[in-house]
Amino acid sequence: MPKAYVIGHITVTNAEAYKEYVERDTPIIEAGGGKFLVRGGASEVMEGEFKARHVVIEYPDLASAKANWTGEAYQDVAKIRHANALSDIVIVEGTE
User: Fold this and answer.
1) Distance between CA atoms of 21 and 74, rounded to whole angstroms?
2) What is the rounded distance in angstroms from the CA atom of residue 71 to the CA atom of residue 41?
3) Distance from CA of residue 90 to its chain's centroid?
4) What pLDDT does residue 31 have?
5) Domain tally, the chain
6) DSSP string computed for 5-57
7) What's this model's pTM, rounded to 2 decimal places?
8) How many CA atoms lie within 13 A of 73 on its CB side?
9) Could you give the CA distance from residue 60 to residue 32 in angstroms, rounded to a whole number?
C-alpha cells in the first residue's frame, strides 16, 4: 500500500497566534500516524508563485491521512490556522 503525503503551502499572517497552531497540531498529526518531513525551512521557488512556508507530512496510507486531517481533533485546531494564515493543502498518494 503506498504512503500518502499532506502537502501544504502557507503564508502566515499572524506569527504570534500561529505558534499555538503549531504547538497543538503536532501531537494530533503524530498520533494519527503522520511524520513531518518538511516544516518550514529555507526554500526557493524555481517556477510559478508559491506561499512562503511549505510543509510535507508523510502518512502510512491515504486512509490514515484523510482520517487524521478530517478528524474532529485536527479540524478544531485548523481553525487557528485558518484565522492566522493563508494556505493551500493537498493530500496525495505516493508511488509505492
Assistant:
1) 10
2) 27
3) 9
4) 97
5) 1
6) EEEEEEEES-HHHHHHHHHHHHHHHHHTT-EEEEES------SS---SEEEEE
7) 0.92
8) 12
9) 10
Residue 40, pLDDT above cutoff 90: no
**CATH number of the CATH domain containing 73:** 3.30.70.100
The three grid cell numbers given for residue 14, joined into one nine-digit string: 499572524
| Residue showing cell 498518494 | 93
**Mean residue pLDDT across the chain:** 95
Grid coordinates 507530512 are at which residue? 57
Q: For the chain, how many residues are written?
A: 96
* Domain assignment of residue 87, given as a range: 4-93
Amino acid at site 93? E
Phi, psi (rounded to 5 degrees) for 83? -80, -20
